[in-house]
Sequence to fold (321 residues):
Amino acid sequence: MSRVQHISVTDDEDGMRLDRWFKVHFPGISHGQLEKLLRKGEVRVGGGRSKSNRRLMPGDSIRIPPIAPPPPTASGSSSSESDRRALAEMTVYEDDHLLAINKPFGLAVQGGAKTNRHVDGLLQATANGTVRPRLVHRLDKDTGGLLLVAKTRIAAQRLTDAFKRQEIEKTYWALLVGTPRPKEGTIDLPIAKQMTGRGERVQPTDGKDGKRAVTLFQTVDMAGPVSFVAMRPLTGRTHQLRVHTAAIGRPIAGDRKYGGDEAMIDGISQKLHLFCRTMTFRHPHSGAVISLSADLSGHMAKTWNFFGFDADAAVEWPENL
Fold:
């Protein structure tokens, strides 16, 4: 950018901090660089000097000085372009308010120690003058499947509230070691995070620190030592499905943390076999009921092919749960 710009704050950005606004609109500018621009008076709000923690209001005019674009990568194309392509390949559904992706196995949702590539980072590449997608829930790094992302602050609030109220129906597919008995039913078992000799783990508990966790399940197919099971969590506890299946003696294949060596099946991938297949919810803007599904991918697709399971199997749950 080689000239001064004046950008107006939108209704969707009401209450956003100035430093957060800059991160959304100009992700290449570090916090330190922003503070320097503010001290020099090159960035102004409403014609006056401001601080980075200022809360913005719709209609506020933000002065942006000339800012050099980020240098291209050695290959000649920017990393943002690569990230946008990667995100486009994952996209299952998108409109002005909502983005749904089929998250690959092994891709973290957010960054952390030794985690440089993650969904939140890919979303930075899609930010423009008015839109910066926001995460509204999580999937474990080793779990694949549907992940919802809000494209506006209003959509983010409404989807976050819907998740908290358990108003979003999710169906997961899993490969279990053995077959549940009975083949379908409900697991209603409180769980809690506890410290063990192997670090912090989520475990069944009848103590006061336990939180109610409820999972519906039904066996879709069986083959040899394993079964294809669909699960619908009625609560959203951390590692709920992994802990519940291990508790009934049928751990998820590849889940060494909760299933131990018993969860390792010869002849197939040793990775976790858990996938978020479908979601049904009310659209955060229109209120219309929307149902999305993700195609089985990665090692689970290969395992389904190996055992001859139907990768397009339909699963129905009882109504009025």
Remarks:
- Residues 79-90 form the longest helix (12 residues).
- The domain at 79-162 is CATH 3.30.2350.10 (Pseudouridine synthase).
- Residues 73-77 have pLDDT under 50 and may be disordered.
- The CA atoms of residues 176 and 252 lie 4 Å apart.
